[in-house]
Write a structure and sequence with these properties.
heterodimer; A: about 100 residues; alpha+beta; four-stranded antiparallel β-sheet; B: about 475 residues; eleven-stranded mixed β-sheet; seven-stranded antiparallel β-sheet; elongated
Chain lengths: ~100, ~475
C-alpha cells in the first residue's frame, strides 16, 4: 500500500475554462501507470468522494499515450466569482494525494 | 493544392504574446523557413476582470517587446503573422490597444504591410436577435443567460474559428490582428485552407498554441516549431536544450481541457482517440492518426463579463485558541452583527441582498471552500479575509469599516470584558470594480464570419490607406 502522491510524477489541478476544474495525474513510466490504473483504487467514484460530488458529475479518463489519468468536475463557484477562492484552480488537488494504492 | 506543397512549417514564438520568448530560439526558428508565424495573445485564465475592464493581463511593455520581434521577423521573411485574442480578452478596447502598439512599432521600424483587424466584440442587438431565434444554446455548466444579461455585460466576445483568419489571408493580409479567437484556429487556418487534413492541422495547432509548454521541462516561455505534412506532423522546440517526447506531447492535450481526447472547435471536434506519438529524434515527435469530425452545425462560443460590484477587503488574523475553536460560530455571529450595523447606517437605502459579505478562513478552508474534505482543524492561528462587494465603492468601503470595528470587539463567552479579537496588519483595501463571467453558451450563426467584422489597412511608415474589406 502506498499513496498516489508517492507514485505520481505530477498531480495537478487547473481551470478547464471558467466553469470546470480539471485534475491531471501523471506518471513517469508505464509500469507505475498500469499499477494505478489496474488497482481499481483510482476511479470516478473515488474522485467524486474526495470532493463530495456524485459520480455522474465527474468526467474520468484513462490516457494510455500520456501515461496519465484525468478527471474534470464542475467548479463550486465560477472562476472569479466573488466567492471563488482559486482563480486558476491550481490548489484543488491535495485530497487526491492521499488516495491509497495497493 | 500546389503539388510542391507537401509541408507547411509553422513557428509559434510563445504561448501568450507578452509572456516572452528567447531571441536565440526565435532566430533559429526563422532559419528553418516557417510559412507563417502565429501567436495567441489571450485567455480567460487570468479571470473575468480583464475582459470586463479592458485591461491586459500582461504589461503593455512586455506585449510591445514580443510584438516587435514577431513583426520584424515576419516582415524579414515576408511571411504572414497571425495574432489572436489580442490584449487578453479580445474585446474591441483590447484589440485597439494592441493595434496601437503595432502602429508604434511599424512607424519606428519603417515597416509596411497589409494589416487586417478582425473584431470579436459582439453587438448586443445581434445577440438579442439570435437569442429570440433560439440560436444561442447553453454549454454545460452554464449560468442563466437572457436579454438582461446581455444588457448588463461590459463586454461579450465571440471566439472566432479559422474562417475569419482565412478570409483575411485571402484578402492579402500580411499581418492579421484578431480579437478573441480559438487558440488553435490561429494555427490551423492556413494549413486547412491549403487542403492539409484537418485532424493533422488542428492537432498541430493545439500543440503550437502554447509555445514550448509541451516540452519535457520548460525553463521559460519559448518557441515551438511544427512541420505539418499530408499524413502526420512533427514538432520540435528550436532551443536545443528543450526536448519533446511522445509522452510530453501526448500529455499536452490534458492541459486546461476538461476532455483530453475531444477538443471542440467552431466547425467540428478534434478527436485524439487514435493519435499515435513516435519519437523522430531525441527531441522531436511525429504525430499521426488524429481525426477531425465536422460539426453538423457551426457554432461560436461566447465569453462575457459583467460588473459584480465594487469591492473592499480587510485582512486579519486570530491567535486566541478560544476563538479558533468556535470560529464558525464566531463568524456567523459576526455576520449578523455586521448586517444589523449596516441596516442601522443605511436603513431602507441598502438591503442585505444589495451587497455580498464573504469571509474566507485561511487555516480552515480558505483555499478549497466547499470542496475541502478536512473538517477538523488543528491550526494555532487563522487568517481571515473579509470581502464586501457592493453597488458603489463608497458603500463597500463604508461596510469594510463596519466589518473591522465589529470583528475587533465581537465577544466570546470565555472572556468577560472588552476584547480585541483580530490582528489587522493594515486597514481595509478598496479594490475598485470586480467582474464575473456570465455566459457559457454558443451562437449558431448563418455563416462563420458574420460575427467578426474585418478592416484592412495598407500600412506604411508615413502613409496609410484603409481598403475595402
Amino acid at each position: 500500500m502506498t499513496t498516489l502522491a508517492n507514485l505520481a510524477r505530477l498531480i495537478r489541478s487547473k481551470n478547464a475554462g471558467p466553469f470546470e476544474l480539471t485534475f491531471d495525474i501523471m506518471f513517469d513510466d508505464a509500469a507505475t501507470y498500469r499499477r494505478v490504473k489496474e488497482s481499481g483504487a483510482l476511479t470516478r467514484e473515488r474522485i467524486a468522494a474526495c470532493y463530495g460530488l456524485e459520480p455522474s458529475q465527474v468526467k474520468f479518463f484513462l490516457c494510455d499515450n500520456a501515461l496519465a489519468i484525468k478527471a474534470s468536475i464542475p467548479r463550486p463557484y465560477f472562476q472569479g466569482d466573488p466567492r471563488d477562492s482559486d482563480g486558476h484552480g491550481g490548489q484543488q488537488y491535495a485530497p487526491l494525494m492521499d488516495i491509497e494504492i495497493p | 493544392m500546389n503539388a510542391a506543397e507537401q509541408e507547411i512549417r509553422i513557428l509559434s514564438p510563445t504561448g501568450v504574446c507578452g509572456s516572452g520568448f528567447v531571441e536565440g530560439s526565435f532566430e533559429k526558428a526563422l532559419s528553418q523557413e516557417p510559412h507563417f508565424i502565429g501567436c495567441d495573445a489571450g485567455s480567460t485564465d487570468p479571470g473575468p476582470e480583464f475582459l470586463g475592464s479592458g485591461r491586459t493581463a500582461f504589461p503593455k511593455d512586455a506585449i510591445r517587446r514580443d510584438l516587435r520581434l514577431m513583426l520584424l521577423g515576419a516582415r524579414r521573411l515576408n511571411i504572414p503573422l497571425l495574432i489572436g485574442s489580442a490584449g487578453t480578452g479580445g474585446n474591441d478596447a483590447q484589440l485597439e490597444l494592441v493595434h496601437g502598439l503595432v502602429r508604434e512599432i511599424t512607424t519606428a521600424e519603417g515597416l509596411s504591410f497589409k494589416l487586417a483587424l478582425i473584431h470579436a466584440e459582439q453587438d448586443k442587438a445581434y445577440l438579442k436577435k439570435r437569442l429570440r431565434e433560439g440560436r444561442i444554446k447553453p454549454l454545460s455548466p452554464a449560468p442563466h443567460f437572457d436579454a438582461a444579461v446581455i444588457d448588463r455585460s461590459e463586454h461579450i466576445v465571440g471566439m472566432m474559428g479559422a474562417e475569419p483568419f482565412q478570409r483575411a489571408l485571402n484578402a492579402g493580409a500580411e499581418v492579421v490582428l484578431a480579437g478573441r479567437a480559438s487558440d488553435t484556429a490561429i494555427f490551423a487556418a492556413l494549413p486547412v485552407m491549403r487542403g492539409f487534413p484537418e485532424g493533422i492541422a488542428w492537432h498541430a495547432a493545439k500543440i503550437l498554441e502554447c509555445g514550448a509548454a509541451s516540452v519535457v521541462l520548460r525553463k521559460t516561455p519559448d518557441c515551438m516549431f511544427a512541420w505539418v505534412r499530408r499524413n502526420h506532423f512533427v514538432v520540435e522546440a528550436p532551443d536545443r536544450e528543450l526536448q519533446c517526447t511522445p509522452q510530453s506531447i501526448a500529455s499536452h492535450s490534458l492541459y486546461e481541457n476538461a476532455d483530453p481526447f475531444r477538443l471542440v472547435e467552431c466547425s467540428g471536434t478534434l478527436d485524439l482517440t487514435h493519435s499515435r506519438y513516435e519519437a523522430v529524434t531525441e527531441r522531436s515527435v511525429k504525430v499521426s492518426g488524429s481525426e477531425f469530425i465536422p460539426a453538423p452545425r457551426y457554432t461560436v462560443k461566447l465569453e462575457g463579463a459583467e460588473r459584480a460590484g465594487f469591492q473592499s477587503i480587510l485582512i486579519g488574523s486570530i491567535r486566541d485558541p478560544f476563538i479558533i475553536r468556535q470560529i464558525d460560530d464566531w463568524t456567523a455571529r459576526l455576520e449578523e452583527k455586521i448586517h444589523s450595523r449596516v441596516a442601522m447606517v443605511y436603513g431602507e437605502k441598502l438591503k442585505a441582498k444589495d451587497y455580498l459579505l464573504h469571509i474566507r478562513i485561511y487555516g480552515k478552508n480558505g483555499t478549497m471552500g466547499p470542496l475541502e474534505p478536512v473538517k477538523e482543524i488543528r491550526s494555532h492561528e487563522l487568517c481571515l479575509a473579509f470581502e464586501v462587494t457592493a453597488p458603489t465603492q463608497e458603500i463597500a468601503s463604508t461596510i469594510a469599516g463596519i466589518i473591522r470595528h465589529q470583528a475587533l470587539h465581537l465577544p466570546i463567552p470565555e472572556w468577560s470584558g472588552l476584547i480585541t479579537a483580530i490582528a489587522c496588519p493594515y486597514n481595509h483595501l478598496d479594490r475598485g470594480a470586480v467582474y464575473r463571467f456570465n455566459v457559457n453558451h454558443v451562437v449558431e450563426p448563418d455563416e462563420p464570419c458574420e460575427m467578426f467584422p474585418m478592416e484592412i489597412f495598407d500600412v506604411n511608415r508615413d502613409t496609410e490607406r484603409k481598403l475595402a474589406a
